[in-house]
Amino acid sequence: MWRHAAARRSAQIRRLLSTSAPSSGAGSAVRGPCIVHKRGTDILHDPWYNKDTAFPLTERDRLGLRGLLPPRVMSFEQQYERFINSYHSLEHNTQGEPDSVVSLAKWRILNRLHDRNETLYYRVLIDNIKDFAPIIYTPTVGLVCENYSGLFRRPRGMYFSAKDKGEMMSMIYNWPAEKVDMIVVTDGSRILGLGDLGVQGIGIPIGKLDVYVAAAGINPQKVLPIMLDVGTNNEELLEDKLYLGLRQPRLEGEEYLAVVDEFMEAVHARWPKAIVQFEDFQMKWAFETLQRYRSRFCMFNDDVQGTAGVALAGLLGAVRAQGRPLADFTKQKIVVVGAGRIQCWDRCA
């Protein structure tokens, strides 16, 4: 079942990529030419257009790439196989290492591919989503967020901070995509069960959107991860010399809401139909912002509405599995089982 589902997703994402990405070599589903306005090293440094050694000689001539790449032309499929082999070699070479070390090593090799060649990266995710989802999202994303300032190599997404107040309406146009369909935003105040991780929480929107692309077929050129940096109350981060966020306590009250208000107005002004998903906000702000924006903007809070929707679907599915009518739902006995996360939620909220 996973293999058939992955094949369908792979075909769907290749259709999406075909409208904007260059040909991916032999066997690609891309049809028709793609107009590229970059040349030479600018193409090789752009992960969306870069195909590494898969550029055929004719494209190397047209795009000013001859001499900038090794002479051998490798097909997209050969690149795919090479990466999978490298990944399996990493698994073999890290046997016996702590789980955290192995997980971060796997995340790094995927992240390097993402930085270099997005078309190959998403093909790898789509075809292997069952294996790679725990690396690009939970549980590994928690480790990534805890260490994000040290792991940072290349910016991804956008950062709006309390220092940008009054500038967000112009800042939103710095994002190069003309159209954005899906935004995931966090303020880093309640990352999973880890608490306040400040700007390092950007790993959550990045990972979640990668899952949406690979598992739901959303166009990767039309998603945007965003961090709202309003400070942090995590003393360890404030004292960390590598920390990349604002070194100040979190804004509260009207000061906090003023920053979020300006951000939402800016997003709505440029992309009025974009879905804005609030992710991993403290409970007090999760409910406050949901009530504040739900009737004005196309938004939802995943921790409030998303979690509730999944839980309800599970309960309704249990009734259906018993062959009983939904009218019997109120007669069910429901047991909620956890492993200590309630304490984390209470502490983080």
TrEMBL record:
(S)-malate binds at R190. GO terms for cellular component: mitochondrion. NCBIfam families: PRK13529.1. This is Malic enzyme. The lineage of its organism: Eukaryota, Viridiplantae, Streptophyta, Embryophyta, Tracheophyta. SUPFAM superfamilies: Aminoacid dehydrogenase-like, N-terminal domain. PROSITE patterns: MALIC_ENZYMES (PS00331). It comes from the Eukaryota. GO terms for molecular function: malate dehydrogenase (decarboxylating) (NAD+) activity; metal ion binding; NAD binding. Coiled coil: none annotated. Belongs to the malic enzymes family. Keywords: Metal-binding, Oxidoreductase. Residues 114-294 form the Malic enzyme N-terminal domain. Pfam families: malic, Malic_M. A divalent metal cation binds at E279, D280, D303. The active site is at Y137, K208. The keyword Iron-sulfur does not apply. Divalent metal cations. Prefers magnesium or manganese. Its cofactor is Mn(2+); Mg(2+). The gene is LOC125509229. GO terms for biological process: malate metabolic process.
